[in-house]
Amino acid sequence: MKTFFEAKQKFDKDFSTKNELTAFLPVNLEIGRKTKIKGVKNTPNEEYYKWQFFYGLIHSGLYQKDFIGSEVYFPKGNKNSAPIKFDGAIFDDAEWFETYKNWITKKDQRSLDWLRQHLIAVIEFKKEDGKDIETVYNQQLKPAIKESENDFVLGVLYDTERLFLFQKKHGKFIRLDESYNLKGENSSTKELSLHLPDEFRKIPSFEQLKKRIVDVKIDRSARTVNDLDIITGVFSTQVNQAISDILRTLDKISMLNQRGYEILLQLIALKIFDEKKNELLKYYIQEAENQDIHRLKFYIEQDERDFRTLNDDNVQTFIKRIQDLKAQAESTYKVILSNSTIDWKSEGHVAVVGSIVYNLQDYSFTRSSTTDLYQLIFYRFANAFTKSEKGQFLTPIPLINFLVDIVNPKITDTMADPTVGSGDFLSISYVKSDRKMDDKNIYGIDNDAQMVMLAQLNMLLNGDGNAKIEFSPGYGSITHKFDKDGKLVSLLPAKHKSGDWDNWDDYTELKKFDVVLTNPPFGEDRKFEPKTQKDKDIIEMYELWHAARNGGWIDLGLVFLENAYRILKENGRLGIVLSNSIASIDRWENARKWLMSKMRVVALFDLPSNVFADTGVNTTVIVAYKPTEKELKKLNENGYSIFVKDIQKVGYEVKTIKRVKHFVPIYKINDEKFEVETDKEGRPLLDEEFSSTVQEFREWCLGQEKSLQDLFYKEK
């Protein structure tokens, strides 16, 4: 089945060269009307876009044509009032047309009543007629929506391929996408983010519409993952309220601490497992008697939540259900679930578990946009884990997407992030491979246990949970490396001075990777100044300490730069975010000479200070690969070019809202129409230079040596 966008493309292919079409829906009472779809200058007119939209709805399978009409007339109010015209109308019963004919020809009140009860969506079409979205919504679409007697009605505005979805819900008129309603259900017109259109993928299907209209009690014990709501955006008031409720519950019983967050992460892991199991089993279990086997278990009934003591039968039923789910998930998600964090004999712990399950149970994690989840789950909760005094800051998603596209991890590559944080470099690389990478080839290390849990959870959501992400306290990956079998081993100061890390008396062999992507900790306090003998022993294992230190200290970024170099395979690729000072000031000139003697520098990208608003530090992305000594010597003798770009626009700004950092999008505005620009699938375009830079870089690659092209240009 085609998507709406693909069906729309098919319409353009079939009708872009034609001047008229035969209507494939009834137009008022007329069947098969010949309709002009080109204007005086032979350009598409409003009718073109109208039938393009209808074609997309039908040929994507979202709706059957028997339920849709064009130019449907209702009286505004009672039957004797002046008529109001719906450009398009969708009903929940195919008998609508005969009923409509009866109303139009006989003015039968019962027919009109029936139509108002069965009207589930109205559609308005525009083509650059000078009216802004607010005017069309208030003067045409909202009055049309009001004609339906349903508690829920969909309103659609299709303005020259710009899509806006509205809803009437409990008497309130708001955007369908909850994240566009700045004050939730209480949003007025000015608070509906009318400058932002909807993506085509957000158009609800006929089944989804009917489901929202029928207001019945939810039987959570009988649900599958398809019955859950999709998280529509990072500013969804409902989801943010749910997260706030969880945090308040943790705070109320003094569990806004490491243990409380570990409980939270374990339960999120259980939810992901529950949804994935449900999605998997539904493909294999078809017999009616086995249907209960793939119902979701991550839920709580109200009487289970309202327990007085832990002896109550209802709460014990809930506890057993979650314990059973945990027992099923432990073997698959053993890293996160191995610890017995939840004390089932503690009323406080059970209350926390109940709150988390209650607030998350109606949303699907596996079906929602991963980008939305990154900000809502990982960024919102990880915000409590990040420690600015350690130089620990989450890497913005647009920057991660950019660096992954530049470095180009392939499905057969092994990759690592030695300062893994919340694991976004790893998870996004996996997702961008269309989930074809073997996540057993994905590795990460961090010295913060909570961040490691977040990274593991991130990979559970996006992969199969087999990534090797390890906690190494203290110095983290500065001292600890993966061996060839995937176990952590510690460097030995007596044996591994000045980068001689492959010198082992036993059979230890360090694992080397095809790709290293990392954003090491940095901030104002990024100096490594050895104060103890242990510090001195550790730093002397790094060649750059001897070659480039500044008196008695070295920038930690240089330590991680050398670390990344030494864990790369021959022809391995590196992408690393460092302080701009390392790439520019005289103090670190020897470090840059060292890098040039070890690697083929491919690209340098200077980023503005607002990329990491927490620090205000200007940063540089270094991209390089590790040729053979012979090839590198030849490259240095002959000279080679480096792709250099100063990136100013990143597509977002960091704002703190209710003490939580959000990456708020900045959109591209059309200079002529003063509208937010969209891509071919209706998504608003960010005002950023990352996308164009990736294209420029790939074109530049075509003029470079074959080995570079093979690594950075060839398809995944």
Description:
It is a single chain. With 716 residues, this protein is of the alpha/beta class. The protein has four domains: 4-216, no CATH class; 225-370, no CATH class; 392-650, Rossmann fold (3-Layer(aba) Sandwich), CATH 3.40.50; 651-687, no CATH class. It is 37% helix and 18% strand. The chain has 24 helices and 24 strands. Helix 3 packs antiparallel against helix 4, helix 8 (258-281) packs across helix 12 (347-360) and helix 13 (370-382) runs antiparallel to helix 16 (449-462). The radius of gyration is 29 Å and the shape is globular. Residues 388-392 have low confidence and may be disordered.
Sum this structure up briefly.
The chain has 716 residues and is an alpha/beta fold. Helix content is 37%, strand content 18%. An eight-stranded mixed sheet has the order 13-12-11-16-19-21-20-22, with helices on both faces.
Count of helical stretches: 24
Q: Kindly, what is the distance between the CA atoms of the first and last residues, rounded to a whole number of angstroms?
A: 26 Å
Classify the secondary structure makeup into a structural class: alpha/beta
Shape: globular
Secondary-structure blueprint:
Elements (H helix, E strand, L loop, with lengths): L3 H12 L4 E3 L11 E3 L9 H14 L8 E8 L7 E9 L4 H11 L2 H10 E8 L6 H14 L5 E8 L2 E8 L2 E4 L30 H8 L15 E2 L6 H16 L5 H24 L20 H4 L7 H17 L4 H4 L9 H14 L2 E2 L5 H13 L14 H11 L7 E3 L6 H9 L9 E5 L2 H14 L5 E4 L8 E3 L5 E3 L22 E6 L8 E2 L4 H7 L3 H6 L5 E2 H11 L1 E12 H5 L4 H10 L1 E8 L11 E7 L3 H10 L4 E4 L5 E6 L2 E6 L24 H12 L4 H7 L4
